[in-house]
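Archive record
______________

***
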Amino acid sequence: MAMGAGLNIDMDEAALLWAEFTHGRNASVRERLAALYMPFARMLAAKMYAGRTHHHVEFDDYLQYARVGLLEAVDRYDVSRGYKFETYAGSRINGAILSGMESYSEVHEQVAARKRIVEERMASLQDAPRPADKQEDLFGYLAELAIGLAVGFALDQTGMFEAAEPAVSHYDYTYAGVELRQLRARLKSLVNELPGKHRQVIHSHYLQQMPFDEIARALSISKGRVSQIHKEALLRLRDSVRAAPELNWSG
């Protein structure tokens, strides 16, 4: 019984499996080959995991991408060429891990950026001092905050400059769905009626998903001023929507 160096791979079994797989491309044989070479893929994944730069990523993620590369290598390996499978598969497994980590990092960065944008919106709407004495004043403050967030949420879903409306889900056929579509359509036109910098901030933040610091650099103003303009714009939009007779804002 011939064994692969240091990997406990039974080369005699591998030869039989490759002969069978080459002849029939059987799915179960493919899985047996993948299982046979999985220690090799695990070794490569462990090496890359040891040198990782993203410490929030688990080893199982590396192992999953290594398996993807291994299966691709099994599918494409040509026994007749005479070179070892490990030689052929190594670069493909490493490449699959690198591609997977790149995609993972992009998603992680997008989630982090999205979280930062939402936190900036919250901070912008919370700039006003909170009432400390009267309970009704506190309720009023919380109501204003909730309404501002609701306007922001509706703006986030408008897709202001898309040529076509997005596909409608079955939930949009409810009465609430119709009202929400009316609100979003109204907001599209109201945004274009905002004063210059207010319109620019809303367009940049909600359409282009730009954080406040990037908007500040683009408009040559401070980040704090962007936050103020954002809040003022949402309050203007809130008041305009409330005044629209065709919309029942208060329910």
About this structure: The mean pLDDT is 76.
